Amino acid sequence: MRTAFGEQFDVPAGYLNTASIGVPPVFAAEAMTDVIGRWRRGQDNAPDFDPMVATARESWAALVGVNPERVAMGATVAEMIALIAAGVPDGTRVVTVRGEFTSATFPFAAQAYRGVTVTEVDADDLTDRAPEFDLVTVSAVQSADGAIADLDGLRAAGTPVLLDVTQALGWLAVDVSWAEWVVGGSYKWLMSPRGVAWLAISPDAPDWIRPHNANWFAGQDPWTSIYGLPLRLADNARAFDTSPVWFSVTGAAATLPWLVKLDRRAVQEHNVGLANDLLARLGLPPRDTAIVSLNAPGAGEHLKAAGIRCAVRAGRIRLAFHLYNTAEDVDAVTAALATHRVE
């Protein structure tokens, strides 16, 4: 058991895979245990989860810095992005960085039949090239290697931006509220169960999003929108909701309000400090991100044998440091890689 930022985490030493799956604080895991217990005893009713949806939505909105009325709820990032992709005008020119996570690009690439194009450029060229296009879709932090986007440059470029904060929100202390659309999953750095994703829609965003997933929960009053026409959707971003994944929302409603209260600058300094310490010990320059990407051929088995949980992305070892990690984890990785050439 580890204690971090005032809460306990039942996470083992060497867990450096938050960029794949975040580990919840004990109180959030207990909330999940409780709801499963109520389920098996038949003690819940569907409306019982509505307050949890509201709490989770309000908390994610606070982390992004927007009004909750601007936030729609879904289950996955790609699902939320697809609402925008399906609504962009024919012939829309989309730009992204080379090697972007495909949930941010495939929904647009799937619109090729009506002339929508997606162009990949080098990350260093994105801000300069952005004015040539109608839309930028990019992650605030890259999944493969933790590279942080030039958010100030994108904001100044003037092209509408769809920003995926899945690998950023929860550790990176940065303003993202300016983007036309901000999307993110909750199961990594936000340490909630998989099955909850969010989309913040700016009042200044182009009118490209359509409620293709229109359903009862997106109604102005969901519990009177269950049967019959006419269409009667909410008059805010809830019009793009899908009905909640109840157990996932339970976990999000537990964890997200706690994250809102944390000093995000302190979280960032903790995470980045550990990542930079590891790089320094390996003789590599600091990168000032919580994700470390290493080229270390053959090192995977040594890391596994040492109890290090990590991932391989784009052919490189990916290690992710979050608030429950400590110098003990840095020591373990350094020892496991002692006989390997790392770059």
Which features does this protein show?
30% helix; 343 residues; globular; Aspartate Aminotransferase, domain 2; Aspartate Aminotransferase, domain 1; single chain; seven-stranded mixed sheet; alpha/beta; 15% strand; three-stranded antiparallel sheet
* Order of H and E elements: EEHHEHEHEHEHEEEHHEHEEH
Uncertain regions: pLDDT < 50 for 5+ in a row? Answer: none
Structural class: alpha/beta
For the record, what is the CATH homologous superfamily label of the largest domain?
Type I PLP-dependent aspartate aminotransferase-like (Major domain)
Radius of gyration: 21 Å
Give the overall form.
globular
Total number of β-strand segments? 12
Portion in beta strands:
5-15%
CATH topology of the largest domain: Aspartate Aminotransferase, domain 2
**CATH class division of the largest domain:** Alpha Beta
Q: End-to-end span in angstroms?
A: 32 Å
Number of helices: 10
What is the level-2 CATH architecture name of the largest domain?
A: 3-Layer(aba) Sandwich
Oligomer: single chain
Helix content: 25-40%
| Whole-number tally of structural domains | 2
Write out the strand line-up for the largest beta sheet, numbering strands in chain order. 3-9-8-7-6-4-5
Average predicted local confidence, pLDDT: 96
Major beta-sheet overview: 7 strands, mixed
Keywords: Lyase
GO molecular function: lyase activity
Organism: Actinokineospora auranticolor
Protein name: Selenocysteine lyase/cysteine desulfurase
